[in-house]
Design goal:
The protein is α/β, with parallel strands linked by helices. The protein is about 35% helix and about 25% strand. About 35% of the residues are buried.
Length: about 425
């Protein structure tokens, strides 16, 4: 951001060439400017803190950023459109997901003020490069700084040779200190394992005994299913997550199950989250975590319930095990449902009026989408459908579904279905 604001790379090349073009490189100050941070997790919050220290006005968009965390950071929490409209500098700190791919494109850039500058040190693919180049060529965007690219190593790119764009070869972690810290961490982890058998920072396994792992396997799948559902459906900032273990679930080792639930909730916004660091990340975001165990549940022999407190109120999801092994959702807020996971599911909330199911089925059929299972819950004047489908649902089809008469909200959900 410093280099981009003052055109330092281009000025460096010019000076090395024996030129003295002092008047050519007229930069801008960071002081007093508005910094828009997209993604305010670990790295994003550190960047926001630096921006506050530079006396910038820092605004942030992050679906998981609570009002309390924003106040602690000294930033203003805004929606994405407001960030695009107000920011002088926009910096990206999100994973590359279906919802963040091309988050910077022609449509979003058109909302930005003239002279905005874009910085991407997060993931290639967050920026539509062709749209950004067009905006730079037109003069609407003053410049960009890119450390990541859709294809790496980037041996050729449309920005190479453009002095208004700083390009670096993914140098984010390329410091002597960072490399030494990584080496020390690996050595310490290996030492812990060889001396005591301790496993830390495991990405793909719970830190439990072999005996417990067999008992916990179905609960871990259930927790991941429930948490993943919440992570994909809830958009507002999360203030608290309460996890209730009822019936037989009250007697299990709940720590790894809770960690998996937190991981699944946070994963849609953070690709680096895992079951080891999820509790730490939750604490960093001031998300209050609580567990409750009840030995009896009157409706199910075993039950896991997640209650998320958000900026827009509380949301509850409950799940059980079918045949002691297969996870299923049994309640979504006020909706009583019976839903088993499927790789692709269509979430539709609508007014409970005649004809809706027929219209939805017809539209899916016309687009060659086969319905594998249709789960429906009703309460009051609304209905909730979770439709398992055999084919991917495109963004264009989802938009058509959203426009069906009576639809209040539609979304495509994806789940990692593990067998055994």
């Amino acid at each position: 951001m410093f280099a981009l604001a003052r055109e330092i790379p281009a000025a460096n090349v010019s000076t090395h060439a024996g030129k003295w073009e002092k008047n050519r490189f007229m930069g801008v100050e960071l002081f007093g400017k508005t910094l828009g941070v997209i993604g305010c997790g670990n790295i994003g919050s550190i960047v926001a803190d630096r921006g506050v220290g530079l006396k910038m006005k820092v605004i942030a968009f992050d679906p998981y950023l609570s009002d309390e965390r924003a106040r602690d950071l000294g930033v203003e929490k805004v929606d994405l459109d407001a960030l695009f409209t107000r920011a002088d500098f926009i910096t990206l700190h999100t994973p590359l997901t279906d919802s963040t791919k091309n988050i910077i494109d022609a449509k979003s850039l058109a909302k930005c003020k003239k002279g905005v500058r874009i910085i991407n040190c997060a993931r290639g693919g967050l920026v539509n490069e062709a749209d950004l180049k067009a905006a730079i060529d037109s003069g609407h965007v003053a410049g960009a700084a890119l450390d990541v690219f859709p294809v790496e190593p980037a041996k050729e790119n449309i920005f190479f040779g453009n002095e208004k764009v700083i390009c670096t070869p993914h140098l984010g972690a390329s410091t002597t200190e960072a490399q030494e810290n990584v080496a020390l961490q690996i050595a310490e982890q290996m030492s812990d394992y060889l001396v005591s058998g301790a496993v830390v920072n495991a990405l793909n396994m719970p830190s439990v005994s072999a005996e417990d792992a067999i008992k916990l396997r179905p609960y871990i799948r259930l927790a991941e299913f429930l948490g993943s559902y919440c992570g994909q459906v809830i958009d507002s900032g999360i203030k608290g997550i309460a996890i209730d273990y009822e019936g037989q679930a009250a007697f299990i080792n709940s720590k790894p199950v809770t960690a998996v639930a937190l991981m699944a909730i946070l994963r849609p916004q953070m690709d680096s989250v895992n079951m080891i660091n999820a509790p730490v990340i939750a604490r960093e975001r001031n998300i209050q975590i609580s567990e409750t165990k009840r030995e009896v549940n009157r409706d199910y022999p075993t039950l896991l319930r997640l209650t998320l407190t958000t900026d827009q109120g509380a949301y509850t999801i409950a799940g059980s095990l079918l045949g002691a092994e297969r996870p299923r959702i049994v309640a979504l807020g006020d909706f009583n449902v019976e839903v088993e996971p499927s790789p692709v599911m269509l979430y539709v909330r609508n007014e409970d009026k005649p004809g809706f199911i027929g219209r939805l089925g017809t539209l899916l059929g016309e687009n060659k989408i086969n319905i594998a299972n249709f789960n429906l819950g009703r309460t009051g004047e609304q209905a909730l459908a979770l439709v398992a489908v055999d084919q991917p649902v495109s963004a264009e089809l989802l938009e058509k579904i959203s426009k069906i008469q009576g639809v209040l909200r539609a979304r495509v959900l994806k789940f990692n279905i593990q067998q055994g």
